Amino acid sequence: MKITLIAGSNREGATSTSILRSIESLLNAQNISVTFVDLRELPLPLYSPDAQAIHPNVQRLAEAVAVAEGLVLATPEYHGSISGVLKNALDYLHGGLVAGKPVLSVSAAGGPMGVSSLLHLQSIVRNLHGVNSPEWISIGAGFHSFGSDGHPSDEGMRGRVESAVGKFVDLTRKLTAGVEAAI
Ligand SMILES: Cc1cc2nc3c(=O)[nH]c(=O)nc-3n(C[C@H](O)[C@H](O)[C@H](O)COP(=O)(O)O)c2cc1C
């Protein structure tokens, strides 16, 4: 199984990127092949439908999404929505790259929960014809600390992340098996 993780914060030490690293480690422990795209390290030009040439960083993003059987998208909650950095990256994608693939949405918020950004993210996934995973992950105020093992310090949060990742992996396995059976 191949999973691509996309970190949508442009902030050094971002909580949403840290939780994505924790998810990467959970996936690695299951021998799942992971590609990590950190948009802070892979800056993309502002999307324009008029652009003629494909920027190499855009090519790398598209390839990482194309080879994936499932995606995990992480965003900071900005003004009740997703970050501009992540939205810009998603504007480069099209249904052909995402259709039928499970997507796990993750947010980090300054308030108690980042539900607005998660709802917006799931709406974008729906419009890219992706399949929203049954659970999502919101890291709100009071849950931004991580242990030396890279996982959330809070036991409850750790359990919620493991549960959401487990359901996402399960869904990806089922859909991938279904696609292979149909070929
Ligand atoms: C421009 C901006 C807008 C924000 N808007 C919200 C918001 O609407 N709701 C909220 O709970 N937190 C908001 N925050 C706080 C961030 O969600 C919080 O700092 C979060 O940890 C950022 O994610 P990151 O650590 O992954 O970069 C905002 C922060 C910034 C810089």
Automatic annotation (TrEMBL):
This is NADPH-dependent FMN reductase. Belongs to the azoreductase type 2 family. It comes from Paenibacillus oleatilyticus. It comes from the Bacteria. Gene3D superfamilies: 3.40.50.360. Transmembrane segments: none annotated. The keyword Oxidoreductase applies. Residues 1-141 form the NADPH-dependent FMN reductase-like domain. Pfam families: FMN_red. InterPro entries: Flavoprotein-like_sf, FMN_Rdtase-like_dom, NAD(P)H-dep_reductase. Its EC number is 1.-.-.-. GO terms for molecular function: oxidoreductase activity.
